[in-house]
Specification:
alpha/beta; 21 helices; about 10% strand
Length: about 525
């Protein structure tokens, strides 16, 4: 799909926002509440059990209108329709971007002319159900005839982060006797320590790899295969019921030895950071059950509907995207903190790091010209209340502007009322304190809190598959909107390639290393001398 030349910094709305930055910087957010007693109602939205209060932002009606004007001058609406209809909006790889189709329903797909794709997706979903049901029921047996009790997902990037995050967040619903483990890092300690605590007779390994050539994943797979070979005397462990492959390159999995009947497939247009909705989500279905995996998809689908049909000023992903851009490009905010006040969501900030920074950490626009503004922010975070006792000092009194997304859960059956009230009170207090600040006495300047620091508060009715699916889709679409505004390709990741190429060169005995810098050559000699 050809994208017309467009530069956000050359628009009238950009110029208007530049002027508004100077005047709004002199206001206090607290003054905006005083000027409008309906501000909270006007600056809040709800969809699919997810409530967003964005009233604690340095935004008045003039800024809000200018941000919406900025959106209207961008290719956003055209790109949104192109994505849902399956056009090749990933322009550098000439691929469609159809993670939304993975959770869509038949009627939605038919309306977009994607009936045939819907049939293929349904077939793979049925495969997920069959395999996960068989494992959960105890009917998937190892080579000695014993039922599987432990499943290891081997993957990296999106093949690990999404399933790991969902299984941790929703462990309330985990199968009582089938445990899921996740191994991603090539550091041998992780795979070795994981295998050490398991029984090979009752262990199943899922190799999750789009290409089945990923260095880290295959090295971990070979280590697992050697473990089965040693303990179970299996000549080719890959060709047994101890291994399942999930891939977009089945020929490579078969070449490795994985049985064709033990393969689940997906498509090359499924980007890693969006792959949990595909067969990569097999470990989710095993842990939670296929019905709950479907509910995860349903929550995301409802957010998709909202994103596609709601007007911009009532559109949750759009509003979050515009606010993020406002701080990144007009207030020089270099990072975005995400603080879930729920320990089970400890992996969510890490998941968002890939979703956001791999998507929008780009230097060039669609036409190859350099961007003229900052693009994706640095995303980081930790669960509350832990973060309050580490980096919150910087949020309150540091010299950086760091917008914060606070995420809370209203009803939590895994906690208790006294714990949960304290947890949520802390979250609300931190958001209020960042906004209000506190003037110090002249004799104690170190007690000064400048305040006026923006935050969103996101409340989920409960931490369920449905609401978590909606929350993930909310952030997916937020990132997409920002990519449209900056006119960058949010769906490739060429930045990760160079390091891989150089690593292969360092590992190859035949490669010429004379063109390496002195530092790298010296360090490589030191490494080789110890191995």
């Amino acid at each position: 799909m050809k994208v017309e030349k467009y530069d956000i910094t050359a628009t009238d709305s950009w110029s208007a926002l530049k002027k508004l930055t100077r005047s709004i910087s002199e206001l206090r957010i607290s003054e905006l509440y005083a000027a409008d007693n309906s501000r909270v109602e006007k600056y809040s939205l709800k969809c699919a059990g997810v409530y967003l209060d964005f009233s604690k932002n340095l935004v008045d009606e003039n800024v809000r209108r200018a941000l919406l004007d900025l959106l209207s001058e961008s290719p956003f609406e055209e790109q949104r329709e192109a994505m849902f209809r399956g056009y090749a909006i990933n322009t550098t790889e000439q691929r469609p971007v159809l993670h939304t189709a993975l959770r869509s329903d038949k009627q939605m797909l038919a309306d977009d002319g994607l009936e045939n794709l819907g049939t293929q997706i349904e077939a793979q979903k049925q495969h997920i159900k069959e395999v996960s049901d068989k494992i959960r029921s105890g009917n998937w047996r190892g080579s000695s005839g014993r039922q599987v009790t432990d499943v290891i997902n081997l993957g990296i990037g999106g093949s690990d982060l999404g399933p790991r995050m969902v299984c941790e967040a929703l462990k309330e619903f985990a199968h009582p006797s089938v445990r899921c483990h996740f191994v991603s890092n090539v550091d041998g300690e992780l795979i070795n320590s994981t295998l050490k605590k398991l029984d090979p007779e009752t262990t199943l390994v899922i190799i999750s790899s789009k290409t089945f050539t990923t260095q880290e994943t295959l090295l971990n797979a070979n280590t697992a295969a050697a473990w089965f070979r040693e303990h179970l005397s299996l000549e080719n462990p890959y060709a047994t019921s101890h291994f399942i492959g999930v891939t977009a390159s089945p020929e490579n999995a078969i070449k490795l030895g994985v049985l064709e009947e033990n393969l689940l497939e997906f498509w090359d247009w499924v980007g890693g950071r969006y792959s949990l909705w595909s067969t990569i989500g097999l470990s989710i279905a095993i842990s939670l059950g296929y019905e709950r995996f479907e509910k995860l998809l349903n929550g995301a689908r409802e957010m998709d509907r909202h994103f596609r049909s709601s007007p911009a000023d009532q559109n949750m992903p759009v509003i979050m995207a515009l606010l993020g851009l406002w701080y990144t490009d007009f207030f020089d905010a270099e990072s975005q903190a995400v603080i879930p006040y729920c320990q089970r969501m400890v992996e969510f900030p890490t998941y968002l790091q890939q979703l956001d920074m791999e998507s929008n950490g780009k230097l060039v626009m669609h036409d190859g010209s350099a961007v003229n503004c900052k693009t994706g922010p640095i995303v980081w975070g930790q669960t509350g209340t832990n973060g309050q006792h580490s980096f919150f000092q910087l949020l309150h009194q540091g010299s950086h502007m760091v917008p914060v997304d606070f995420i809370g859960v209203l009803k939590d059956k895994m906690s208790s009322p006294d714990h949960h009230r304290v947890l949520l009170a802390n979250m609300l207090a931190q958001s209020a304190a960042l906004m209000q600040g506190k003037q110090a006495e002249e004799s104690e300047p170190y007690r000064h809190y400048p305040g006026n620091r923006p935050s969103n508060v996101i409340l989920m009715d409960e931490l369920s598959p449905y609401t978590l699916g909606a929350l993930i889709a909310l952030y997916e679409h937020k990132v997409f909107v920002q990519g449209c505004l900056w006119n960058i390709n949010s769906f490739d990741q060429w930045g990760v390639e160079l390091g891989k190429v150089l690593a292969d060169k360092l590992l190859s005995e035949e490669s010429d290393k004379s063109d390496l810098d002195d530092s790298t050559r010296t360090l490589l000699v030191a490494v080789d001398a110890t191995l």
